[in-house]
Write a structure and sequence with these properties.
Length: 187
Amino acid sequence: MKVRLLKSLIGATTLAAALPLAAVAAPITGQLDITGLVLQSSQFTATGSADFDNNIGLSNQATGDFDALVNTVFEIGADTQFTFTDPIDFTSPGVVYASGQITFTATSFTDFDNDGAVRGFDAIGTISATGFDDTPGVFSFSTQGVGTVQVSFSSTTLPTPVAEPGSIALLAISLLGLGLVRRRRGS
């Protein structure tokens, strides 16, 4: 009986120790802002698309982990260029932009605004970056001003919060408690 209890406690302890290690991740943190030019003819609707004057964007702000991965237009050195899928077809989720180290892949498009001078959309998807785990994120895109052929745009990429491994600690404590209760009943 005591051997079985000991095996149960060892198994529970091993499981509790292994789970946090599997849950440890290196998600991307921070904010990435990219600017560029988009054609005025873009239709920010569920069946539309964003058509670019050229498919290049430059970062004008990078915080958190993004700061180490890109050179903004305000820093010395070569600006990090982002290549946008041209056009971004809102009916076919996929890669929205990529640079040497960062890619945003949309799984869905939402919050379309096709009226007025400020138009845009949001994309829900995954941020992938060298040295980090794929991280859920949101890409928010908006235009500024009214142009006859092209307008400037800005975009922000933000990771969505990832659950803390606190629930795993709670599981470990629960398993330990169950083992102690079982031990008392066996005595």
